[in-house]
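note to self — DONT lose this again. spent like an hour looking for the file last time. sequence + predicted structure for the chain T wanted, 394 res
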Amino acid sequence: MMPSRSLFPLLAGAVSAGLVAMLAGSATLQAQTPTSQAPASQTPGPGATPAPAPTLPVVVSRAERGPVPLEITTNGNVVAEATVSVRSRVDGQIEKQHVEEGQRVERGQLLFTLDSRMTQALLAQQEAQLARDRAQSVRARSDANRYASLRGEGFTAAQRYEQAQADAAAAEATVRAGEALISQTRLTLDFASIRAEIAGRLGALPLTEGNLVRAGENTPLATITQTDPIQVQFSVPERWLPEVQASLRGGRPVVTAHPPGDRHPPVQGSVVFLDSQVDTTSGTVQIKARFANPDNALWPGQYVNVVLVPRVEPDALSVPVQAVQTGSGNSRYVYVVDGESRARRRAVTLQRVVGGRAVLKAEIAAGDKVVIEGAQLLSDGARVVERPAARPQS
């Protein structure tokens, strides 16, 4: 029996619904598959070549051997070599002040003049008395000579002769006393002109014109501080005492002084004093050095940085201080670039730093290349490439 035509539309709809359901299921399965599961990376096989190690750029400098001074660095204070308190040696009123506070004066320069009219009047009186005494002395000597001649002829008594000789001697003694008195008065008159006893710089002037001063009073008229030459006083640890003593036996060690923050070059002097004993409380020994100071680069009381050079090491190994690195336990090392452009770590002993260079004890030869920039990224055997140092910005 043949199916009726009315069933064909129903069969076609069922087939279409089944196809749609299959497509929807396939899409659901694809959506549930994780997208993060990427294909595994391929591992190179046993015969593959590994990637080369990176090459690090560095700046290098040469190690050097040559004379390097032994420098003892410390601090010190500038002290005046001499200070004079100016006082009057006579009483009087200040008539004239010839200088100003802070002025530089030379030895013998007039500072103050005291009123000396009374002394001048006394000197005139004494000179007149001396003239009278000299006249009397001449007359007494003439009488003594006359009586001496008469005695020889028997016309005078011995007593009269002796009296004449005594009168002449007394008159001469009176003249000498008058001369000494005049010398004393002239000295007093000279003391009325108060002059500088040393060359130096004046401090404050507490007394001015019109003030009355007395001999030897406590308040000085002025204070003169010698500033050229000048001294620097400093101390060094006692471990340096043998070096300083050996240097003094061969001459005077060189010392440089430089005030902190001063842009001028350090001034240079020499040791003139080494204390006779070590200070047991501080373990240091005191030293003084003398400096020429015509331009007042050093000022009394000033704090300065001091460098003492007792000797020069003739054949010292040195590298730029930037090359020295610090490892664990404060160990020191440098990187040396070999002929294959590889950095080799070398242990070193830092002795001192002089003028931006580190003096070392190490198995490094003069001319070896040491890394001064880029060492922080290196390891022993790292491959490096040299690059020029950056120019400082002007």
